[in-house]
Amino acid sequence: TNTSNNNNNGFIPYRNSALTSMLRDSLGGNCKSCFLLAVSVDRPCFEETISTCRFGQRCGEVRVSIVANSEISLGDQVKDLNQRIKALEKQILLGDELRQRVEHALRAEKV
Question: Which one, of 57, 51, 66, 49, lies nearest residue 3 by Cα?
Answer without folding.
Answer: 57
